[in-house]
Design goal:
The protein is an alpha/beta fold and 157 residues long. It is built from two helices and nine strands, in the order H-H-E-E-E-E-E-E-E-E-E. It folds into two domains: 59 residues, no CATH class; 65 residues, no CATH class. A hairpin with a 2-residue loop joins strand 1 and strand 2. The protein is elongated and about 75 Å long. It is 36% helix and 15% strand. Strands 1-2-6 form a three-stranded mixed beta sheet, with no helix packed on it. The chain has a two-stranded parallel ribbon with strand order 3-7. About 17% of the residues have low confidence. Keywords: Membrane, Transmembrane, Transmembrane helix.
Length: 157
């Protein structure tokens, strides 16, 4: 998690704790009707803030552009340049090159790295900068060059 993400989590936790203490004090120091009114206002504000955060998150993720890519996204679907990377449940999707990696359940890469062949695995794929990568449920997809890797369940290199 990034520094901004950690800060957002802590701010949310502190604000939630402060709201809970405040509502508890209203119940104790005032009456139940005043506490109900305060809780109604607090709930409305939380709902409004949640809606704003949702809209900002959707806007930040970006809708597909005319070139077939996205402006950038985060979370379960990350972006590499204009490439959109998506993985279903239990799937593995990589937006760039893969070298010396084990992708899949039980996959293993052991021993020293293989000697690379001339001109292999150094670029970003053959013009794949705008190619979307998608692996459906339990699938594996790579959007770049794959070298010296074990790909698939129980595979070995």
């Amino acid at each position: 998690m990034s520094g901004a993400g950690r800060l957002a989590v802590w701010v949310t936790a502190v604000a939630g704790a402060a709201a809970a203490v405040g509502l508890g004090l209203v119940v104790v120091l005032a009456d139940l009707d005043a506490a109900a009114q305060a809780a109604t206002v607090a709930g409305g504000l939380v709902g409004l803030v949640g809606a704003v955060v949702s809209v900002l998150t959707l806007a930040r993720s970006g809708a597909p552009t005319g070139s077939g890519g996205s402006a950038g996204s985060s979370g379960a679907a990350g972006a590499v340049g204009k490439r959109r990377v998506r993985a279903g449940r239990g799937a593995v999707a990589v937006g760039g090159n893969v070298t010396g990696s084990a992708l899949g359940r039980g996959a293993r890469v052991t021993g020293p790295a293989s000697t690379p062949r001339p001109g292999a695995g150094t670029g970003s794929g053959s013009g794949a900068a705008e190619v979307d990568v998608r692996a459906d449920r339990e699938g594996t997809a790579v959007g770049g060059d794959v070298t010296d890797s074990a790909i698939g369940d129980d595979s070995r290199r």
